[in-house]
Amino acid sequence: MKQDITEDKVTPKLARKKTITYMVLTAFILISAFMVVYQVYLYRHDFREYNAHMREREDINAEWGRLLIEQQTFGATAQIGTRAVTQLRMYSPPTAQTVVISLPTESKQKK
Hints:
This protein is mainly alpha-helical. Helix content is 81%, strand content 0%. It has one domain. It has helices spanning 2-86, 106-110.
């Protein structure tokens, strides 16, 4: 009989410990689940930001390419002018040697 009495007293304490343990484990599982959801949210946010930066980088690279082409074009123009003066001995005539030719306008042609 004494064993039955001691088992009855231990059982409620054991049940209480099990209940508390299950509640703590359930709380840890819920906290872990919410942290996973939060980490996925942060990852997606960072990934969207990364893609925006990559698009901006591509746009800047395209603009850089256009600027390089423009620079080469202006460099070629200066090089052509330099070669024309040095190799072909071309020059711009002074204003005294410049002649302006004006074409008749349409109103004078109709008369």
